[in-house]
């Protein structure tokens, strides 16, 4: 029997979270909602970005080099949309310095622009704290869950910890950025052979 309803199913009303990078031309004006950044080594492999899963990583086995990228939850101010903002390790240094000075990234007004009009030009971040007394910031996006969803990974295979014996994937940054894959405390993809991570 055909059954009609007055409301769309929940699945169709979910809002997609966009992952934004600094555009080649123009700028992004962001209000950061994360207290800190997280990051991981990624590969551009089979036509898309994917995290390096360490041991058993298909992209590593194929010889694809990895690069570290950092992520923060933010509001893109021209649209008032919650987004995930991706930065390279070099640009993330400015975020780490801001966090060290102010104790948090949350409430940071950030303008991201490239130094030249090319998609691979260096990114420059201009940051300042905002007076948030007249504005309520929304809770930040759950970055690990959102990134795992974007990359098609079950969230139960990711965890935050400091055990560098497991392949590091997403790193929660303290005050240092990675010099190699072994620094900091990491959000890891657990190697579970199909079993949920502990």
Structural class: alpha+beta
Average pLDDT, rounded to a whole number, is 78
How many strands? 11
Helix content percent band: 10-25%
Number of helices: 4
Largest sheet descriptor: 11 strands, mixed
Q: Rough shape?
A: globular
Number of domains: 1
Give the radius of gyration: 18 Å
Distance between the terminal alpha carbons, to the nearest Å? 44 Å
Unreliable runs: 162-198
Q: Could you tell me the strand content as a percent range?
A: 25-35%
How do the SSEs run, as a string of H and E? Answer: HEEEEHEEHEEHEEE
What's the gist of this structure?
The chain has 198 residues and is α+β, with helices and mostly antiparallel strands.
Describe this structure in words.
Residues 162-198 have low confidence and may be disordered. The chain is built from four helices and eleven strands. The chain is 15% helix and 34% strand. The chain has one domain. The chain is α+β, with helices and mostly antiparallel strands. Strands 1, 2, 3, 4, 5, 6, 7, 8, 9, 10 and 11 form an eleven-stranded mixed beta sheet that branches. A hairpin with a 2-residue loop joins strand 3 and strand 4 (48-51).
Topology, element by element:
Layout: H1 10-13, E1 18-20, E2 27-32, E3 38-45, E4 48-51, H2 58-61, E5 67-76, E6 81-88, H3 89-102, E7 108-114, E8 123-129, H4 143-150, E9 158-161, E10 168-172, E11 185-189
Parallel strand pairs: 1-6
Antiparallel strand pairs: 2-5, 2-7, 3-4, 3-5, 3-10, 5-6, 7-8, 9-11, 10-11
